[in-house]
Amino acid sequence: MNSHSEHVLALLERLSRVINNDAGLSELKPAQWEALRFLSQANKFSRTPSALTSYLGVTKGTVSQTLNALERKGLICKKKDAGDRRSVSIQLTEKGKGILNNDPLKALLGAIEQLSNSQLNTLASTLELVLTTALQQRAGAPFGVCKSCKYFMRNVVDGTPHRCALLQVPLTSMESDLICREHTN
Ligand code: SF4
Question: Is 171 exposed, middle or buried (0-12, 13-18, 19+ CB in 10 A)?
């Protein structure tokens, strides 16, 4: 590892400590905030305990405890799938959507908003590359945004107005901005 790589690694570690320290001072645990954020960004195929487990890269037991705590606080609700009773989908409640306004991660936004558009674009593409490579090494799913997936069909006759060629379902414009566990580059 050269000294530039080590410096970047140290910066990422410090940044992650700032994020976790901020979250640790709030009313929810860091893992509970991560679960709420995921549920606010994930599409309907991904709002499940198993997708959350894959997204967070933690054990099923940890996710189960996190979801039970959020349910007790009235921030999420679980619904059994009508077609498959063993499958559960998770929704944010109105209270759950509301508490995201107090997300401690937003404290970092002020610093990020100081960057110019070209700095933001460079930072976003660089971090995406690092994250994707790290996930590939761990066989993790990238959970990309739907409209950048190779199966996304924009404005098609049998879409609403878009369509997923993998799952063979219509997609609204709002759904095309959400993240998906099946996303493929
Ligand atoms: S197009 Fe890709 S990302 Fe979108 S729903 Fe289908 S598989 Fe998921």
Answer: buried
